[in-house]
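To: structure desk
From: M.T.
Subject: fold request, one chain
Message: Could you run this one when you get a chance? Sequence is below, nothing fancy, just the single chain.
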Amino acid sequence: MRARLRFAVRGLVLGALVALPVSADAPRGQYANFLRTDQRIRDLKTKLVWERSVSPAPVAFAAADAVCGGDTRLPTLKELLTLVDEAPHEVYDLDRKRNVLKYIDQQAFGGQTPIDKGYWTSSMGSATKAWTVDFGTGETSLDDLTDPRYVRCVRFVP
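Reply: Done. Structure tokens follow.
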């Protein structure tokens, strides 16, 4: 009887874990609870709602706005920097066939964040360059508008 009860409790707990929302690696209270299947995640501190997926391929800056449709847009440099994780995590990169570091919350964005190129922001550095954020290094840079970069869209929801 005792073994049966233990098994039933384990099954109940496991079933509950699958159904509960995921908590991110970010500081407590950073993100609203979310499920792994959610397409968006809400940052409770900044009031930004982030698309969890990114552009399927890097694009030039001129095409970046078209990737964000409807009520979403390119984030500013300051906004995109809020996603940079100060404590990177190591993951296995199938393309590189080795472990790499990612400077972005693993639970919230890790699986949907390629790191072979940076990510566009709407913040311009000059007439021919815009600021980008690299989640493989955690660094920012000014890149030529014709260079292909990824896009992660955002919207502000008060």
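Reply (cont.): The longest helix spans residues 2-19. Let me know if you need anything else for the meeting.
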